[in-house]
Specification:
The chain is α/β, with parallel strands linked by helices and about 325 residues long. The protein is built from 13 helices and ten strands. Helix 2 links the parallel strand 1 and strand 2 (about 60-65). Helix 2 (about 45-55) crosses helix 9 and helix 6 (about 165-170) runs parallel beside helix 7 (about 180-190). Its main location: periplasm.
Length: about 325
């Protein structure tokens, strides 16, 4: 992602992010409030398009932009939003509120990046400072698991929301070790060839983003939830089959207008890489995704217990996915 991505969106979303963080109105019946725990960038187009298509089918949706995954999760716990976007395994286990994941959006494609002048490999990060997205985020989980796998411990973990923000900090030299998404990894390689090293990540196939809500909300709003999940699956399938569709979605629904028309080529390339990696959840996740997540998040120390003993129903409500697959069929 080049300089025209999240940074250019910051001004337009900051008021919403700050307002949402400080005082989000209570969610009202008949309108689905979705808490988005990040500033939307090109990696959000599939989700944003699914939301627009759900609106076309009669679902009233309000998107609340919050610049932190923790804030999005807190909005669900506090009843200020209905549906959250993230991977709230730690929250589900510890919050005491019956929150359930009901559809996977995508699996993780994160890239640990270090300044080549300072570090060459994982062992060099022993005792050093790193920067990740947020406490409890997938970026933190990846970095913690890699530390465990490589027998090291970090000196300090800083929380810096926004993959592009971390990319810019790496370019400026204010941080020397972090983790970014695929778009910002590509941007670093293009903008500063040879300056950074992407460290290897082994055997990570866990949830990056998913939809979650309270059990009561899912029970009482099944019709609207079903429409949203169906559209999420359909957009994932269409983009996976033809990544250029992401550009068509962006232009049809006027998504991320601040990026300008010049972003279309990058969007197409990003979703081509994402589709080739199979990162979009064309069947919504479910039991198989939960098993992968249990293994990953316990190994990373974000949830407790033996992965084989954790119960899917304590974290997921798979009935929504089952209903969507009965309508759309399985890919």
């Amino acid at each position: 992602m080049t300089g025209f991505s999240r940074r250019t969106l910051l001004a337009s979303f900051l008021a919403a992010a700050m307002g949402g963080a400080m005082a989000v109105p209570a969610a009202s019946a008949g309108e689905m409030k979705i808490a988005f725990g990040d500033l939307p960038g090109i990696e959000s187009i599939q989700t944003l398009a699914a939301i627009e298509r759900a609106k076309e089918r009669g679902v009233g949706v309000e998107l609340i932009i919050l610049n932190d995954e923790d804030l999005a999760a807190q909005a669900i716990v506090g009843g200020q939003a209905d549906v959250g976007i993230g991977a709230p395994y730690t929250l589900i286990q510890k919050a005491g509120v019956p929150i359930r994941i009901f559809a996977q959006i995508s699996t993780q494609r994160f890239f640990p990046v270090v300044n080549a002048e300072a570090y060459k490999g994982w062992k060099d990060l022993d005792g050093q400072e790193i920067a990740v997205q947020a406490r409890g985020s997938g970026t933190e989980a990846v970095m913690m698991l890699m530390a465990k796998n490589n027998g090291i411990s970090y000196g300090k973990v800083s929380y810096v929301p926004g993959s592009e923000v971390r990319r810019n900090a790496l370019l400026q030299g204010t941080i020397k070790a972090s983790i970014v998404d695929a778009a910002n990894r590509r941007a670093l390689e293009a903008e500063a060839p040879g300056k950074f090293i992407v460290l290897p990540v082994e055997n990570v196939s866990a949830t990056d983003e998913a939809l979650f809500a309270t059990a009561d909300y899912l029970k009482n709003n099944a019709a609207d939830v079903d429409i949203l999940v169906e559209e999420l699956m359909k957009t994932a399938r269409e983009i996976t089959e033809n990544p250029q569709v992401a550009v068509e979605f962006r232009n049809k629904y006027k998504l991320l207008p601040d990026l300008g028309a010049e972003a279309d080529a990058e969007i197409a390339e990003y979703y081509k890489e994402t589709a080739e990696a199979g990162a979009l959840a064309v069947n919504g996740g479910g039991a198989e995704a939960a098993a992968d997540d249990f293994a990953f998040f316990t190994a990373a120390g974000q949830i407790e217990g033996d992965p084989a003993s954790l119960k899917i129903e304590d974290f997921w409500d798979v009935s929504v996915i089952d209903r969507a697959l009965s309508t759309l069929g399985k890919k």
